């Protein structure tokens, strides 16, 4: 199998200035490999560093140490831990998607425009982007009367489904999921599961962090558990 991403001895330390200079460890000595088309899940207690790992890969956080080797279609082998910001922005537009359980959105953009924008950034034409965006909003059971409204009025579950629609419509090479089912009911979880299987079948590689272990075990190929700052591969049941 061919590796899409290799994380080697990743460290992230946060420097806090409120009470002098205090260092807090986000994650340390994290190493794992994800092959093309594979989905790995990361579990662990709240505060164990799961989100920190995901955000270092997406480069929301700048790692303190270690390597994140990503095999890019556009650039070849890239170390995401040190790549220039311009390279990271291009990869986010063209290859790497991210789903957060929290929705950050421009205040004057409708739900339909929000999903369309994701496709337009990748060079899709307007008519096709609109068609695919509508199909994805319907797939995630967002009512049609909401499509031309502003998401600031949405419920937590509706915002998360919108965030999933925006990320999953792109068919990214690598998709990072940060608690993707956190505020969803069972029917919505089944919709997410269906889309994940479609993306995997199309070749998308995924890394996700979960508290919902039953859902995780139904979609991932391998699981890593983060405990006491260390990450070890768990045996799949």
TrEMBL record:
Annotated signal peptide: none
Ranges of residues in domain ABC transporter: 5-237
Gene3D superfamilies: P-loop containing nucleotide triphosphate hydrolases
InterPro entries attached to this UniProt entry: AAA+_ATPase (IPR003593), ABC_transporter-like_ATP-bd (IPR003439), CP_lyase_PhnL (IPR012701), P-loop_NTPase (IPR027417)
PROSITE patterns found in the cross-reference section: ABC_TRANSPORTER_2 (PS50893)
MF annotations from Gene Ontology: ATP binding; ATP hydrolysis activity
PANTHER family: ALPHA-D-RIBOSE 1-METHYLPHOSPHONATE 5-TRIPHOSPHATE SYNTHASE SUBUNIT PHNL, LIPOPROTEIN-RELEASING SYSTEM ATP-BINDING PROTEIN LOLD
Protein name: Alpha-D-ribose 1-methylphosphonate 5-triphosphate synthase subunit PhnL
Organism: Sporolactobacillus nakayamae
